UniProtKB/TrEMBL annotation:
Taxon lineage: Bacteria, Bacillati, Actinomycetota, Actinomycetes, Mycobacteriales
Protein name (database record): diphosphomevalonate decarboxylase
Domain Diphosphomevalonate decarboxylase-like N-terminal stretches: 31-182
Organism whose genome encodes this protein: Nocardia pseudobrasiliensis
GO BP terms in the entry: isopentenyl diphosphate biosynthetic process, mevalonate pathway
InterPro entries registered for this protein in UniProt: GHMP_kinase_C_sf, Mev_decarb, Mev_diP_decarb, MVD-like_N, Mvd1_C, Ribosomal_Su5_D2-typ_SF, Ribsml_uS5_D2-typ_fold_subgr
Presence of the UniProt keyword Lyase in the record: yes
Length: 354
């Protein structure tokens, strides 16, 4: 089941990137995070954000990010506001680099004001950079008057944050690793929605909302350069992706879950074997994994996946989600338990003509 993806809307013009003869002076966009069922972990080119392996995710229907981009022709610099406050420097720098890329493509020079509101805790491994850069890519292209197809938009969002390319689309989404480097790599590495998928849920056990360290970007680099398990994991992940495509197409919830859990725990094995070791999992994360095993022993096909943080998402059939929620609620130390279903792709909610 794929829900409303960007390709289904008339938000984007069916042409590759090109400047239009008019721009909206401001645009608002809404995007949702995604949870990878086969993970992206490692770049073959850091500046173009080309991944070593392809990945596959489900866009969620909770925790949206809303971003407004307003052109400010009188300003001498961009300003970036994050949840009503000036953004921290590391976020501002990334957003400014991204806007510079959009301006270059649009042949424009005006600076912009960017206001972002997140409903997902930032930097906790709950994919705020995915929804954040997907929303920014959509709002900025509209504000600066760039025509783009959804596929082009996914390539652009990828440059802000790799996983953001998947949040351009709703439902189940594959991000092709692509081939080669430079322009070839850029052209062939994009996200695409899958035509079908299981009627499933991800029940998210929120273990901790403090920002994680190190960042995904740093941890990926450290994994690639120091972990003896990185290459074996990357090879296995390629096989996981092929098998996952079949399992999603067959709507086989248990098979999707088995592949997803193995792929995620493999990624954490890579992290633990990096030097120095990177340990995102906490004792409470492991208790959630225990609970998931108990559920399986009791006949509920539930499987865990964990991103770059301690929070655990439990994959299950929608018909089993209340049993999973009840089991997780028994763990009193969890901060909260949230249920996500396949959600929509990015949308531009309003824009103003200049
Ligand atoms: C994923 N993660 O596939 C993997 C699994 C976290 C664990 O993509 O460096 O914020 O900005 O491209 O996309 C998180 O990393 O990294 C991520 P950059 P991103 O969802």
């Amino acid at each position: 089941m794929n829900t409303g993806n960007a390709a289904d809307t008339d938000t984007f013009c069916p042409a590759s990137f090109s400047a239009t003869d008019h721009a909206d002076s401001e645009a608002n966009a809404v995007a949702y995070p995604n949870m990878a069922l086969v993970k992206y972990w490692g770049k073959r080119d850091e500046s173009l954000v080309l991944p070593v392996t392809g990945s596959l995710s489900m866009t969620l229907d909770i925790f949206p990010t809303t971003t407004r981009v307003s052109l400010e022709p009188q300003s001498s610099a961009d300003s970036v506001w994050f949840d009503g406050r000036p953004a921290p420097r590391h976020i501002r720098d990334r957003v400014e680099r991204f806007l510079a890329l959009v301006r270059e493509r649009a042949g424009r020079s005006e600076h912009a004001r960017v206001e972002t509101t997140n409903t997902v805790p930032t930097g906790t491994g709950l994919a705020s950079s995915a929804s954040g850069f997907a929303a920014l890519a959509a709002a900025a292209t509209h504000a600066y008057g760039l025509r783009s197809t959804p596929r082009d938009l996914s390539r652009l969002a990828r440059r802000g944050s790799g996983s953001a390319c998947r949040s351009i689309f709703g439902g189940f989404v594959i991000w092709h690793a692509g081939a080669g480097f430079g322009a070839d790599g850029d052209d062939t590495s994009y996200a695409e929605p899958l035509p079908a998928g299981p009627d499933a849920a991800l029940v998210i056990a929120i273990v901790d909302t403090a920002p994680k360290t190190p960042s995904s970007r740093t941890a990926m680099r450290q994994s690639m350069t120091t972990s003896p398990l990185y290459l074996p994991w990357a090879c296995a992940s390629r096989a996981d992706l092929l098998e996952m495509c079949v399992a999603v197409a067959d709507s086989d919830v248990a098979r999707v879950g088995r592949i997803a859990e193995g792929n995620a725990l493999g990624m954490h094995a890579v992290l633990l074997s990096a030097r120095p070791a990177i340990r995102y999992l906490s004792p409470l994360s492991l208790r959630v994994l225990d609970r998931v095993e108990q559920l399986r022993s009791a006949g509920v096909p539930a499987y865990a996946t964990i991103d770059a943080g301690p929070n655990v998402a439990v994959w299950c059939a929608r018909s089993d989600e209340q049993r999973v929620v009840a089991a997780l609620h028994e763990i009193e130390e969890l901060l909260s338990v949230r249920v996500a279903h396949p959600g929509p792709g990015v949308t531009v909610t309003s824009s103003g003509r200049s």
